[in-house]
């Protein structure tokens, strides 16, 4: 997609809940955007925690947006100084977001808030003890389809805005196995709570650099999970 360059690229004062993407000029909640700062050595640094000192430069969490910012040197225009933005910045961000997602899954496993395996996940879904379903993107459709159908029927406080549970299909089986100490994992269920919400949020960012984060009720949509809006 060809983005129109924003007329005013100077970073805005960092107050309030929303920020403006310097590529698309779209204003979004901070949690839906990526923050960057310029280091003392003039390097563009992703600030995924949104805590580093310095004036933030904000981008929509999409590979094409990051690539446009690098190619058109929009970081330098926004910072009003010469900066170094690596050509593989989008790949670096994807790797960072992937690690954050897998770390959350590892925390959930150690806390007893995540189970893996078809039968265990199926049982948790039927018992209504799931907030997010994670499926390996390279898994057989038969098993995924059965669990998606169960996720689609979930209602109540754990369901997404459009009904059904959020379903994350961003990781391959090898990646998904890592936080569980296995060679591979295919089906994972996360219990309701903060870790599940964090995974949904981080996966929403990672989705812009990989395949879609889909919801059980609307496989074409990118779901943000309970209490949040869809990403566009």
Describe the overall structure.
This protein has 232 residues and is α+β, with helices and mostly antiparallel strands. The chain folds into 2 domains: 18-86, 2-Layer Sandwich (Hypothetical Cytosolic Protein, Chain: A), CATH 3.30.1230.10; 91-222, 60s Ribosomal Protein L30, Chain: A (2-Layer Sandwich), CATH 3.30.1330. 33% of the residues lie in helices and 18% in strands. The chain has 7 helices and 11 strands. The strands form 3 sheets. The chain has a 6-stranded mixed sheet with strand order 6-9-7-8-10-11, sandwiched between helices. A 3-stranded antiparallel sheet has the order 4-3-5. A hairpin with a 6-residue loop joins strand 1 and strand 2. Helix 4 runs parallel beside helix 5 (141-152). It is elongated. Residues 1-8 and 217-232 have low confidence and may be disordered.
Q: Give the H and E element order.
A: EEEEEHHHEHEHEHEHEE
The CATH architecture of the largest domain: 2-Layer Sandwich
**Overall tally of structural domains:** 2
Strand content: 15-25%
Ranges with pLDDT <50 over ≥5 residues? 1-8, 217-232
Q: Order of strands in the sheet with the most strands?
A: 6-9-7-8-10-11
Q: Fraction of residues in helices?
A: 25-40%
């Amino acid at each position: 997609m060809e983005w129109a360059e924003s007329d005013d690229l100077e970073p805005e004062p960092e107050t309030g809940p929303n920020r403006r993407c310097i590529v698309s000029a779209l204003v979004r909640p901070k949690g839906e955007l990526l923050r960057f700062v310029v280091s003392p050595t003039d390097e563009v640094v992703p600030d995924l925690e949104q805590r580093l000192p310095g004036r933030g430069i904000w981008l929509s969490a999409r590979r094409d947006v990051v690539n446009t910012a690098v190619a058109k040197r929009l970081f330098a225009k926004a910072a009003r100084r010469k900066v170094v933005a690596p050509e593989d910045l989008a790949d670096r961000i994807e790797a960072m977001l992937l690690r954050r997602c897998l770390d959350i899954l590892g925390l959930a496993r150690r806390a007893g808030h995540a189970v893996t395996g078809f039968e265990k996940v199926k049982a948790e879904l039927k018992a209504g003890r799931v907030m997010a379903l994670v499926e390996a993107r390279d898994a057989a459709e038969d098993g995924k389809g059965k669990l998606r159908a169960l996720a689609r029927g979930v209602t109540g406080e754990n369901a997404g805005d459009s009904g059904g549970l959020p379903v994350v299909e961003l990781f391959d089986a090898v990646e998904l196995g890592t936080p569980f100490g296995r060679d591979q994992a295919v089906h994972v269920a996360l219990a309701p709570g903060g870790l599940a919400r964090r995974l949904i949020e981080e996966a929403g960012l990672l989705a812009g650099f990989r395949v879609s984060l889909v919801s059980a009720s609307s496989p074409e949509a990118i779901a943000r999970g309970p209490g949040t809006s869809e990403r566009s």
